[in-house]
Amino acid sequence: MPSNEHHKLLKKSDWPTVEQTMIDPNKKLDLIVSKYNERDKNGRLPHHWMAAKAQTHTHTLAHVGVMSIHYNLQALITRDKEGKTSIDIARRSGACAEIIGLLSLTPEEARKLGWKGMARLYAPVAYWRHEMLEWIKSRSWADCHKFINEHDEELVHEVLKFRNSELLLSTACNSQVYSDSLVFFALRMIHRNPLALTGTNSQGYTPRQASVNWNACREIQNVLRLSPIFFFVGTYNFPTLLRQHLPKQFVDSLTNVGTFNTVCQFIRHMKYDKAELNKVEDVLKKPTPKCDVCKNTTTKACARCRTTSFCSAECQKSAWKKHKKTCKRPTTPPATEADLRTLHKGMNFLNRCIQEPGAGDGPTSVVVEFLFPNN
Questions:
Q1: Are 256 and 368 in contact (CB under 8 A)?
Q2: 29: Cβ–Cβ under 8 A, 6 or more apart, which residues?
Q3: Separation CA 165–CA 194 (nearest Å)
Q4: What's the pTM value of the predicted model, to 2 decimals?
Q5: pLDDT per residue over 145-198, tens digit each?
Q6: pLDDT by residue (tens digit) across 239-267?
Q7: How far, CA to CA in Å, does 125 sit from each of 23, 70, 201?
Q8: How many domains are there within the chain?
Q9: Is residue 246 part of a domain?
Q10: Is residue 241 part of a domain?
Q11: CA-to-CA distance for 220 and 171, rounded, in angstroms?
């Protein structure tokens, strides 16, 4: 039996064309399924060729792999004329870890996971892109923001970049009704992937042209007039974009526009958490220390080491012979209670910042309150 187009494209490692063929809305699903059950003259299914050519991981390859298994679960255990399964070929050819993991599934495991389960495990960028498209079509902007807020920044960036401008084009076509959340979402996408402004759909429309053709709200059309070149030369920063395209009260609830993105990005990477806050709280709640000699409570400590407490000079002198063996000047000045309370307050603010919508795009008002309390 001669190779079908999927065999030929997979042999060339042309993953983008294979993916487009798989998701082509003009092709019938049963026809694609039949193609993934066809063997070539070597007795190989398309899966075997994918396994042989999958040395370099890409998000598109991972998506193709998941869809191909979804179309033919039995291909996971089907052997070619040499008696090799797709996982045998993948291991022998040095396929990437994602494809080896996918092809290691049994048909029963793959059936139980379904397309979504396999995609979430082995092609997370394609999975979340699909979820984002569904939210955009249903105008669930809150879900879009939740994904950006709660997931790793690298994953978010890859999802918004995957297939370039698809998400922004979909947003342009589903933006007839204005909302602050809608415009904020469009700006967040553009800020992370400015080149999405220049991408085109199958009809050759850019997001801006699509917004006009689909009668998007005026605010979205204005946003899509932005030029990506100004992002790369540093003309645009996120707080400025917010100030230009959103109402002042909405911007004020997200960020202080007088402080730039780097502050919040730095804070986000600090990753303060509850465990660290508790450590500071434990120090603050520590009971009043007692004199090392007479055991009376005291607020005084050895002026040199600052770790051993003495209530009087007499007690310190009486303990000096023993204490001098461990008394060392600290390499860094010890934190005072006032220092710890300031740190505790700051860490609480930083924790709140990380959880605020917009964290990572620009510093939120809670951060500015801590950094510039007199402003």
A1: yes
A2: none
A3: 9
A4: 0.67
A5: 989 888 888 899 899 988 888 999 999 999 999 999 999 999 999 988 899 999
A6: 778 888 988 777 766 644 334 344 444 44
A7: 16, 17, 20
A8: 3
A9: no
A10: no
A11: 9
